[in-house]
Amino acid sequence: MAKAQFHRNQKVWVETVGTWAVIEKIVPVWARGFDEPVRITYDLGLGRDFLAQDLRAEDPLDEPDADAAGAAWRLLRARNKWQAPDDCGHHPYPGTFPVVVTDAADWGGWRVPGAEYDRDPRKIEYQARLIENAPRLLAIGRELAALAEESPDDIPAPVQELALRFKAIERRLSEIPETPADAPAQTEAAE
Questions:
Q1: Using H for helix, E for strand and C for coil, what is the string for 120-162?
Q2: pLDDT tens-digit readout, 38-64
Q3: What's the DSSP call for residue 64?
Q4: pTM (predicted TM-score)
Q5: pLDDT at position 65, please?
Q6: Neighbours of 44 (CB within 10 A)
Q7: What is the residue extent of each domain of the chain?
Q8: Structural Rg of the chain based on CA atoms
Q9: C-alpha of 150 from chain center
Q10: Which of 48, 71, 60, 49 is nearest to 11 (CA)?
Q11: Pairing verdict, β 39-43 and 49-51
Q12: Pick from 106, 98, 171, 148: which is nearest to 128 by CA?
């Protein structure tokens, strides 16, 4: 059945209100005939209870000096308009799907079609978390490469090899790929 995704006294961002709040109370919603709660809501002291999909946990990895391009990347939950929560009980978060937002204005980023999410929701959830954390992984790779460049004699050979592999990946990220020769040419739309 339903499980709590947040804990008491945890600081969370309330999407629908646009403010930070602390969870004061976890409120299970029970139904007759069930041994476990059918839904969990959270009392934040804001006058009404909120569902987990309305809340986002504070990310301890977000540092004030984080890369400006990646600092705004975050994982949000969007309501699934195509399926009722009862029809998708096999999803990790029934009734929602992940959206990675890469802009401070809560738009732009990565989304997945509903049918693809329904086919393998755990894979899509993993991809969303990976994309959300890509800027942090990139920062770690840059630190590793800088460390290897500063003192190449003090770094073990396997770490130097990792730094070289990271540099190759970073080069690939910054290059604009060429159009394959067998791909159809893109034409401008007629006016």
A1: CHHHHHHHHHHHHHHHHHHHHHHHHHHHHHHCCCCCCHHHHHH
A2: 889 999 988 899 998 889 887 654 443
A3: T
A4: 0.52
A5: 41
A6: 22
A7: 1-58, 136-174
A8: 22
A9: 33
A10: 60
A11: antiparallel
A12: 98
Residue type, 137: L
Distance CA 28, CA 50 (A): 12
Q: Report the Cα 160 to chain-centroid distance in Å.
A: 30
CA-CA-CA-CA dihedral for 23, 92, 74, 84, to nearest 10: -90
Torsion of CA 154, 156, 157, 158, to 10 degrees: -150
Six-digit token pair at 2? 């339903």
Residues comprising the chain, all counted: 191
Rounded to whole angstroms, the Cα distance separating 55 from 13 reads 6
Amino acid code (one letter) for 102: T
DSSP count for the chain of H helices, then E strands: 4, 9
DSSP 35: S
